[in-house]
Amino acid sequence: MATLKYDVIIIGSGPGGEVAAIRAAQLGLKTALVEKAPHLGGTCLNWGCIPTKSLLESAKTYSKLQHATELGFNIGTLTYDWQRIMERKQGIVDAQRKGLRFLMKKNKIDVHEGHGRLAGKGEVTVTGEGGKVTTLATRYVVVATGSRVRDLPMAKTNGKTIINSDDILSLSQVPKSLCVVGGGVVGTEFASLYGRFGSNVTIIEMAAQILPTEDAECVKELVRQMKKQNITVETSTKLLSVEDKGDHALVTTEGQKARPFATVLISVGRAAVTEDIGLDKVGLSTDRGFLKVNEHYMTAVDWIYAIGDVIQTPALAHTASAEGIHAVERIAGHQPPVIDYQANPNAIYTYPEIASIGKTEATLKQEGTEYKVAQFPFAPMARAKIDDATEGFVKIIYEPKYRELLGVHIVGAKATEMIAEFALGKGLETTVDEIAHTIHPHPTISETIMEAAHVAMGGAIHL
């Protein structure tokens, strides 16, 4: 059989890979997408962003219905059907999977199912079902193989009492008690989810604060609200062991006796998937598992690019997608602007949500950079009261001379939506004054943005 020839082959179909493939096809490149998992979409669609946000939305709805009387509704005894909630989650995932397959067909992208490996100059092999190997020829390759959950040697997961972030999406019921080891984004989101469904949750974090890269004031507000959601946060806490006891697990931390939990979630980050993809065949090596690339995502081998979780940029779905578009546009001969990671938004879907761009006050102080802060709470805003979402605030950090944005940190409802305005503003080098003079619709939560900017101009209007 003749070797199939392509302009570009993308290995991995997560948010970086699938977006890169579609953009490449749009630019007229003959494109192939290689995926070893049963479904396209990578971690984000199958075990990450999409299923978790579906469950978080159900948890938020359940929490709101518990206060229905305050909104003028009498609904009697409120209960939830966990199986139906899980079925809804799976229905959303299945619909998105189907949509991805359609997009591949629509854009005439060849999908090769199997384990993709670099095999030499301009060659990729795909080992499919039954060990059948197909050889593909290409001008360029984009490595987008993503990441996998990290394990802890003192807390081996078993899929039952000790689980990881993949396992927790298939729980048959809400555990009575849940210990979350690791207070990063994934851990705090699951804590927020299960806490609102009634689980007694404890987060154990070794650092001095959960979400250690986020603004300290935002995290303090989040922790304050978490206490109302059956969540206890233990920081500066070292885990010693997690022991399976059949129907529960024992968690031992430094300075404390072993404590029983129905379920323990190990959420201590992710590791790049760069082993067994043929790097040795093309002369590439990794640094702590990551591939090194230039500002256009080209590796040391000029026909191989790498994007997403396999490189040392923020491990976020939307970041990988942006990198994928940039890489294939360069391959197609275009000159896209270099990605500004200071305008790259972080989005955390706890309740309240946290979202940010740019630098924190702590980072600016460490750098010795002069800055000013303009901050405004949600509480005075009419829409916040209407939506029963008065917790939190918008914080704008700006440079005092030219008044450009240095960082923006939001904690509260709709934070993950509102941060997009600042991402655009940062990219356009807008000033805090220009934001203040931008008309925001009334009544909306987004008016809080305008009010915060007014603080920088001498005083908020509604405070």
Helical segment tally? 12
Structural class: alpha/beta
The CATH homology group name of the largest domain: FAD/NAD(P)-binding domain
Largest sheet: 7 strands, mixed
Please identify the top-level CATH class of the largest domain: Alpha Beta
The helix content, as a percent range, equals: 25-40%
**CATH-derived topology of the largest domain:** FAD/NAD(P)-binding domain
Mean pLDDT metric: 96
Calculate Rg over CA atoms. 24 Å
- Beta fraction of the residues? 15-25%
The end-to-end distance, rounded to whole angstroms, is 73 Å
The CATH architecture of the largest domain can be named as 3-Layer(bba) Sandwich
Judging from the principal axes of the Cα atoms, what is the shape? globular
Task: Please give a structural write-up.
This protein has helices at residues 15-26, 42-47, 49-65, 82-106, 185-196, 216-226, 317-331, 361-367, 382-386, 415-427, 432-436, 447-456, and strands spanning 4-11, 31-35, 110-113, 115-120, 123-127, 133-143, 147-149, 162-163, 177-181, 200-204, 231-234, 239-244, 249-253, 259-261, 263-266, 270-272, 304-306, 346-348, 353-358, 372-377, 393-398, 405-412. It has 463 residues and is an alpha/beta fold. It folds into three domains: 4-149 and 271-331, FAD/NAD(P)-binding domain (3-Layer(bba) Sandwich), CATH 3.50.50; 162-267, FAD/NAD(P)-binding domain, CATH 3.50.50.60; 342-456, FAD/NAD-linked reductase, C-terminal dimerisation domain (Enolase-like, domain 1, 2-Layer Sandwich). The strands form five sheets. Strands 1, 2, 3, 4, 5, 6 and 17 form a seven-stranded mixed beta sheet that branches. The longest helix has 25 residues, at 82-106. 44% of the residues are buried.
